[in-house]
Design a protein that fits this description.
It holds the Pfam family F-box-like. It comes from Saponaria officinalis (Common soapwort). This is F-box domain-containing protein. The protein has 419 residues and is an alpha/beta fold. The protein contains 13 helices and 23 strands. The strands form 4 sheets. It has a 15-stranded parallel sheet with strand order 1-2-4-6-7-9-12-14-16-18-19-20-21-22-23. Strands 11-13-15-17 form a 4-stranded parallel sheet. Helix 12 links the parallel strand 21 and strand 22. The model has no long low-confidence stretch (mean pLDDT 87).
């Protein structure tokens, strides 16, 4: 260990992450103290991880952080996560940021101060590449002054911000590629909550737990769109067709329009979603390069709608993974039996049911004949604890049928997952 260069020791200490461990390790010898001072890359202060911090006053914690940060030179990564109820002095936190801002590349900022400080005034126009802000209020964004010329990743969680400031903030990041918006409180500017975002460089966006009237996203370079646990009347995506991954999980939306962005989709993953299959399929049917299609726990607006598997096979010839819950309605089974289609590239089939049924086996048997190159089959099912005599018979018939099926398709890796 004594022969290790100080730069290597600095890398080792940086990988420890937690400031308390870094400080203890740096006390090993003079070389390690020098590495801590001149070659440490990152520090993490997380007051939820250590019971030691809970025994200290807020002022004492401020002193510890100040002493630790001010012993370093050229810190590139700083993470500060404090308890929900505590507040730090604004002047002290400002001193930490001012001291590190010239070298800082990554900042995770979950700090409450009194009064609230404007982190963009302090860290703007520097070399910051990744910024995460949690439990803060953002007001008065000035994109001409508070610019982040190097920022590629921005995450806002439990942040209060107006729709205008959110768009201005995005425009202040001319190289932004990844955006995460989680549980934002969008302040009202009129009777409707409308968010309009525009970024020519944005490649990935994740939106969770946000309620809006209208969300309009203009992003020509967008490749990955993921919405989770959101409610909105309208969502419009305006793009040049670069979208590759589209995920909707527990989203309520009345009007959904992806425009021309869907032409190069490779992954469509929809779960806990109610929609019109006809309109949805029309929207994604131009995605001839689709590789993965997942429809899980979905419901249709029209009870007579069915998933047209033949249309799926015809529209998506390169489909390699298909996942869906089969509701086993009679006309869906009839369609599968009669369709002349083949899914030659399908390698993984994931299928499930909400209630076990006698027709599941013939349904699955006929469908497997359409998949000559299948390598893996995953079957999800729900079996109730309290079973009637008829349900026991159905379960017994199903088990016997699955044994026959496995013997028939010994080249397929079959997995069963029951709830």
């Amino acid at each position: 260990m004594e022969d290790l260069p100080a730069e290597v020791v600095g890398n080792i200490l940086s990988r420890l992450g937690v400031a308390r461990d870094v400080v203890l390790a740096s006390a090993t010898c003079r070389k390690w103290r020098d590495a801590f001072r001149n070659h440490l890359h990152s520090l993490t202060f997380n007051f939820n991880d250590s019971p030691v911090y809970r025994e200290l006053l807020t002022s004492q914690i401020e002193i510890l952080i100040t002493l630790t940060i001010f012993q370093t030179n050229g810190l590139q990564g700083l993470s500060i996560v404090m308890d929900d109820g505590d507040e730090f002095s604004a002047s002290t936190v400002t001193a930490w940021l001012v001291y590190t801002r010239e070298s800082l590349r990554s900042l995770y900022y979950n700090v409450r101060t009194n009064p609230n400080i404007n982190i963009f005034d302090i860290c703007g126009r520097r070399k910051l590449e990744k910024l995460v802000i949690v439990h803060n209020t953002i007001t008065g964004v000035e994109p001409n002054y508070q610019r982040f010329l190097c920022l590629t990743s921005l995450s806002l969680s439990y942040v209060c911000i107006s729709a205008l400031d959110l768009n201005l903030l995005l425009s202040a990041c001319p190289k932004i590629e990844t955006l995460s918006l989680i549980n934002l409180e969008i302040t009202l500017s009129d009777s409707q909550v409308t968010v309009e975002l525009n970024s020519p460089t944005l490649k990935s966006i994740y939106v969770e737990a946000i309620s809006l009237d209208k969300f309009i996203l203009e992003a020509d370079s967008l490749e990955d769109l993921h919405l989770k646990d959101c409610a909105m009347e309208q969502f419009d995506l305006i793009g040049m067709g670069g979208l590759k991954v589209f995920k909707f999980d527990d989203v309520s939306v009345i009007h959904l329009d992806l425009g021309e962005a869907v032409e190069n989709l490779e992954v469509v993953d929809v779960s806990n979603f109610t929609f019109s299959w006809f309109r949805f399929f029309q929207m994604i049917s131009r995605s001839s390069n689709l590789r993965v299609l997942r429809l899980w726990d979905v419901a249709f607006e029209d009870l007579d709608e069915v998933v047209d598997l033949e249309a799926i096979a015809r529209s998506f010839p390169y489909l390699s993974k298909l996942s869906f819950i089969c509701d086993l309605r009679e006309h869906l089974l009839h369609f599968v039996e009669e369709g002349p289609y083949k899914m030659h590239n399908l390698a993984l089939l994931e299928i499930g049911w909400t209630a076990i049924h006698d027709e599941f086996y013939p349904f699955l048997e006929n469908f497997l004949e359409k998949c000559p190159n299948l390598k893996k089959l995953v079957i999800h099912g729900t079996v109730s604890d309290a079973k009637t005599h008829k349900e026991c018979q159905i379960l017994g018939n199903f088990t016997s049928s699955m044994v026959r099926l496995m013997r028939q398709y010994m080249h397929v890796d079959v997995h069963f997952e029951y709830e």
